[in-house]
Amino acid sequence: MAIHTPYSSFARPANTTAYTSGDIVADNTTAASITPLSWGVGAVGGSGIIRAVRLFKSATGATAASFRVHLFLASPGTPTNGDNGAYGVASVTDHLDTVAIDLSSGAFAGGTTGLNKRSASTAICFRLPSVADKLYGLIDVQGAYTPASGETFRVTLEIEPV
Fold first, then answer.
1. For residue 10, what are the CA distances in angstroms to 7, 25, 111, 154?
2. For 26-71, what is each residue's pLDDT tens digit?
3. In Å, how far are 24, 35, 146 from 30, measured between CA atoms?
4. If 0-12 CB within 10 Å is exposed, 13-18 middle and 19+ buried, where does residue 72 land?
5. Looking at beta carbons, which pairs linking 118-121 to residues 24 or more positions away fall under 8 Å?
């Protein structure tokens, strides 16, 4: 079967406030207003194997640009904090896995905008609940990262249907 590559993206707030390791990177500084990443998997109750995760950010700054993508089988609900606060969710019941992607080294930087990198190959198996057709995600930073104002993040999952 062909690999399915859904993507989800967001623009972070228009500021350049530095993150510290473990801070959430999101679309809003207010926790209750964060929209988690979401990826359609093609079918209600669908299943598959995530073979890799690709992360793109629109700014070219690579210093301390190391991130983790947290994957969930259902919406993680309201995070504990908004953008640039300590990462946390109310419940990890539906947490599937976490994938690290370090853009500070080995990332593709073509042209004048952005950095893009594919995670190491993985085999994260999932089966969605019988009423769900999406996976969800949140991002946190793993260093003292200084963002560009309004920087865009795009996460693509490489899913092998089963």
1. 11, 10, 21, 7
2. 999 999 999 999 999 988 888 999 999 999 999 988 889 999 999 9
3. 11, 10, 19
4. buried
5. 118/52, 118/53, 118/54, 118/158, 119/52, 119/53, 119/54, 119/55, 120/52, 121/51, 121/52
Q: What Cα–Cα distance (Å) separates residue 75 from each residue in 21, 34, 37, 153?
A: 23, 11, 9, 19
- Is residue 135 within 8 Å of 72, Cβ to Cβ? yes
Tell me the CB-side half-sphere exposure of residue 83, using CA atoms within 13 A: 25
Total Cβ atoms within 10 A of residue 32 = 9
> Residue 42 is which amino acid?
G
Q: Sorting pLDDT into bands at 50, 70 and 90, what band is 111?
A: low
Quick: pLDDT tens for 119-133.
Answer: 999 999 999 998 899
- What the block records as the tokens of 119 is 């995670």
pTM of the model: 0.95
Beta bridge partners of 152: 11
Beta pairing, strands 47-57 & 124-127: antiparallel
